[in-house]
Amino acid sequence: MRRAALLWLLLATPALAQPSGSFSDFVAEFRGEALANGVSAQLYDSIMPALTPDPNVPNLVETQPEFTTPVWDYIDARVSASRVERGRAALSRNSDLFAAVGQRYGVDPYLLGAIWGMETDNGGVLGNTSLIRPIVRSLATVAWQRRSRFVEDKADLVAALQLTERNGGSSPIGSWAGAIGHLQVNPSNVVKHGTDGDGDGRVDLHNSLADALATSAVFIRSLGYQPGQDWGFEVSVPEGFDYLLATRDELRPISFFAERGIARVSGRPLPKPEHRFSFMCQPARAARNF
Predict the structure, then answer these.
(1) Which segments constitute the Transglycosylase SLT domain (predicted)?
(2) Helix or strand run (H / E) with residue 221
(3) Exposed, middle or buried, 120 (CB in 10 Å: 0-12/13-18/19+)?
(4) Residues 233, 213: contact at Cβ < 8 Å?
(5) Mind listing the pLDDT tens digit for each residue in 206-258?
(6) What is the pLDDT of residues 27-60, one digit of tens each?
(7) Residue 210 in contact with residue 236, Cβ under 8 Å?
(8) DSSP per-residue codes, 242-280
(9) d(CA 286, CA 173)
């Protein structure tokens, strides 16, 4: 679970900026964009003008551990023996469902299980009202703040309003950043990839683990995931290796690393030479490389 969870962490880190005007000004200005993307005027006017900024969002943005803690320290703090044990028990209880999703969508069930454990402690936090709340207000606050992810934040707000319309005017619930359900999928990807995994005619990532797993599997495949291909692996590096090559922002072919003496610690062969990976290293005190 430790390694697979890294896939979900390699995301851009948002920075908090200053709003360019009042919240009510933002709501008025955003109306045209929302309506142009299929949100009805009736829904928008019944929800958005009555909103006020969520006062908790600025602190949550600035202190979210994924964004303020080095990735290795974050994983060490989040992946405990007790969490792994809970994850194994949860996977065992739902083994048939995970196997069926893996078979149908071609995504490793253990990858899905790792994400489930890291994101919501296997669904354990979904009933925590201090963490899980109606997302339209939070997303409106985040979009108004104009983070570096401003375009994505606006798209998620539009998607949240679209989902609200589908729900008969009831806002979906999720994290302050809008992530929904057991595996915390953002609203834009719920709209794009939402999948009815349990066959009840609805897509409900909060109350249906089957829907959450199916949607996440479809989303992961859309990112280019290839069945049977490793997301990554631990490697050894030779003396004198150039650690300036350690960046997740540039993908290089395996042949590039093989020529520089990198090898898998497990003794297994490297993937095909044309497959592209980035190189990540821990601080010297830990000396593990992926």
Answers:
(1) 23-280
(2) helix 209-222
(3) buried
(4) no
(5) 999 999 999 999 999 998 888 877 778 888 888 888 888 887 778 889 999 89
(6) 999 999 999 999 999 999 999 999 999 988 865 5
(7) no
(8) -GGG-EEEEEEEHHHHHTTT-EETTSPPP--TT-EEEE-
(9) 39
